[in-house]
Amino acid sequence: MTLLQIHENRGSARVAAPAEEPSVPTMNLSSDLKEVRATRDLAEALKLTKELIQDSSFPTARAWVAGGGHAAAFFPVYTPQEIAHALGLLPVSLRGGGEDLEITHADAALGSFLCSISKSTLELAITGKLDPFGAFVFPYICDVSRNLEGIFSRLRPNAVTHMLHLPQNFTSASSVPFLVAEYGRLVEKLERLAGQRLSKEALADSLQVYNRRRALLADLAAIRRNEPWKLAATELNLLERLGDLVPPEVQMPVLERALREVKERQRPKRDAVRVILVGPFCEQPTHDLLSLIEEAGCYVVGDELSMLHRWMGDVPVSGDPLENLARAYIRSPVDIGVRATPMPKGVSIVARAKEAEAQGVLFLTAKFCEPALEDVVLYRKGLDDHKIPYLHLEFEEKSTSYEQSRLQIETFVESVLFD
Ligand code: SF4
Q1: Looking at the domain covering 3-19+58-198, what would its CATH class be?
Q2: Which ligand 1 atom is nearest residue 337's CA?
Q3: Which of 242, 277, 259, 292 is nearest to 356 (CA)?
Q4: Residue 281 CB: number of other CB atoms within 10 A?
Q5: Is-above-0.85 flag for pTM?
Q6: 114 with 121: CB under 8 angstroms?
Q7: Whose CA is nearest to atom 3 of ligand 1?
Q8: From atom 8 of ligand 1, which residue's Cα is the shortest distance away?
Q9: What confidence tens digit (pLDDT) does each residue in 214-238 have?
Q10: What whole-number distance in Å separates Cα of residue 297 and Cα of residue 414?
């Protein structure tokens, strides 16, 4: 089936999912998402978050739209969600379809040797799961994301689609004005969906809200780094991913409670190897794979899983908020596969491993993700030079059996512990 045929089918069968589509139970939430606020402790919040992630019909966006609002979907890795928030939109981060989504249509439109997230995101659109969204924003992180924007503009002609260009030169005096202009193009489009103009005051308020959220996540990440027995990587990841789906005002009470609870936890230390996870900055490994890494004897003390939520620290709110946001992006020290700071990659990975006091590096790259795979070569050279051990595993969304990965991780852990 060609993309044109998919488009035509999609346009003529908007109400009925394709015949072979299994009926998936979906959650229905109230428009103010009080179900999230009502969770009583960390365990309940994590359980609900997991259910929200598994429900590919985006229950939070559906609830928001049913309550009269508009929702905007953002592809990884980085997008300025504060802008959507300041316009009263619900910003939702797309993270692919997970292991439960059957790919039956997108394979026909995209080549075989492409990452899973590109196919699952397209599958979600073709099967109507992304109907609640009135806008789709794709940062130009790779050829795949660039083409998805074009495909979405044809599949959803009535929605706002936008390809966001982010600078790669962080030392040029033109980088900030360039990014402010790029954000300006995005603002114009999102204003159309929101039906209102963006005010400086509203954006400054949103910067403050997001600063507070980043501070809470940074506190949790610090516990995970300093006392990893108190907070599992899977738990931190779920807390971050809740923010992919709900507004910060709904997520923050959950984070505050989690912080109090985790600080009080009395859990025994394990004899585990401290590792940083490098590579999964866009497509996400499954929850089962992340759990397995910890079960097999690792403490994950740093990762690239939810960079969106910890890309920058405090963004100043006085002055021009759009310029502040652009400057914060450019000044961020984040160095991942789709962003190269002036520091050589081999030097950067060693610095990150040392900062996290990691004993090893676990490369966890999505299959066919060129930006991640290309950097592994450069990272390995730096690690070899400093005799820092590493292991490289590849994953895809539909992986279900991890026995070989378990064996490889256990062998790696033993070699680090007993060498
Ligand atoms: S997983 Fe890699 S190749 Fe695929 S869209 Fe993301 S950055 Fe691009």
Answers
A1: alpha beta
A2: 7
A3: 277
A4: 27
A5: yes
A6: no
A7: 369
A8: 142
A9: 999 999 999 999 999 999 999 999 9
A10: 9
Order of all β-strands in the sheet with 273-278: 298-302, 273-278, 360-366, 390-395
User: Is a pLDDT exceeding 70 seen at residue 9?
Assistant: no
Q: Where are the domains of the chain?
A: 3-19+58-198
* CB count in 10 Å sphere of residue 2: 9
Q: What mean pLDDT is predicted for residues 367-382?
A: 94
**Residue 315 token pair:** 């963004």
What confidence tens digit (pLDDT) does each residue in 60-71 have?
A: 999 999 999 999
- What values do phi and psi take at 96, rounded to 5? 85, -170
**Which residue of 144, 152, 339, 365 sits with most ligand 1 atoms within 8 Å of its CB, as the best mutation to test the pocket?**
144
- Ligand 1 center from residue 274 Cα (angstroms): 27
83-87, 184-188, 351-355, 396-400: range with lowest mean pLDDT: 396-400
CA distance 101 to 351: 38
Sequence-ordered strand ranges (E) for 226-328: 273-278, 298-302
**Ligand 1 centroid – CA 282 distance (Å):** 6
Pocket of ligand 1 (CB under 6 A): 115, 117-118, 141-142, 144-145, 282-283, 338, 366, 369-372
Q: What is the mean pLDDT of residues 386-411?
A: 91
Distance 200 CA to ligand 1 centre (A): 33
